[in-house]
Each structure stands twice: as C-alpha cells, then as structure tokens.
Design a protein that fits this description.
This is Tropomyosin. By secondary structure, the protein is mainly alpha-helical. The chain contains 3 helices and no strands. The longest helix is centred in the last third of the chain and has 76 residues.
C-alpha cells in the first residue's frame, strides 16, 4: 500500500515538475517572441529612417549640383556648396551607420529565431513527456481503482487525503 502511495506521489511530483518546466519554456518562448517583435519594429524604424536619409541625400546632392553651377558664377556659392557637401558626407555616414545597425539587428533577429526554434522544440519535447506521464498517471489511476476495490482501508486513507 505504501509503495503505491509513494509511486503515486512520485508520479504526481514528476508530472507537476514537467508541467512547470513546460510553463517555464512557454514563458521563455513568449519573451523571445516579444524581443523578436521589438527587433523587427526597430529594423522597420531604421529602414524607414535610412530611406528618409537616402531621400535627403538625393535632395542634397541635387542641391549640390545646383550650387556648383552657381559657384562658377560666384564665389559665395562655393561656400554653400562646401557646406552642402559636408552635410552630404555626414548624411552618408549616418546612412552607413544605419545600414550597419540594420545588419546587426538582422543578425540578432536570426539568432533570436534560432533560439525561438530551439525553445519550441524543447516545449514540444516537454509536452510529449508530459503526455507520456499523463498516460502513465492514467494507468496508475486505473491500478489504484482496482486496488481500491480490494482494500477498503486504503480507500479510507485516500479519502483522508
């Protein structure tokens, strides 16, 4: 009788442990998915910023061409062209930095996807393990019911639980 109780208690503990691990992995998966979504949003934001900067670069390049034409007719326009050229250079550097950041974020996103897949596989394995434990638990419950019919005293002990 005590052996059956001990086995039942051990099976319950293992089932509870498996369920808690499954919940933990689900929470980790949710966290990774949230991080993944944030990184995707950041990439989208940086991509938009990069497009805006590239558009600004194109406008400034057109302005530089315009001012270069005017610079030939006057010295004053030369100073503005230099200023615009510096702005273009700064914007190009910002665009390169944005591209570099996007590449880094894409790599982090890829790594997050890999981790997410890993945790999904772990969750699936834990769910399968949990299902096996549930099946074993049901078998033990049936054995318990059979033993219950034979031992009325055992029924009283279980009723006290």
């Amino acid at each position: 009788m005590d052996l059956i109780k001990q086995r039942m208690a051990a099976l319950r503990l293992e089932a509870d442990d498996s369920a808690s691990k499954a919940e933990e992995y689900k929470a980790k998966l949710k966290t990774l998915e949230t991080e993944n979504l944030q990184k995707e949003q950041e990439i989208t934001s940086l991509s938009h910023k990069n497009q805006v900067l590239e558009s600004e670069v194109e406008k400034l390049e057109e302005s530089v061409k315009k001012f270069k034409g005017e610079a030939e007719s006057g010295a004053h326009a030369g100073g503005q062209a230099d200023s615009l050229q510096r702005k273009i250079q700064l914007l190009e550097e910002e665009a390169e930095e944005s591209d570099r950041t996007i590449r880094e974020l894409n790599e982090k996103l890829r790594q997050t996807d890999v981790k997410s897949g890993h945790y999904e596989r772990k969750v699936q394995a834990l769910e399968q393990s949990r299902d096996q434990w549930e099946t074993k638990y049901e078998e033990m419950a049936k054995k318990y019911a059979d033993a219950k019919k034979e031992l009325e005293e055992f029924v009283k002990d279980m009723g006290a639980l």
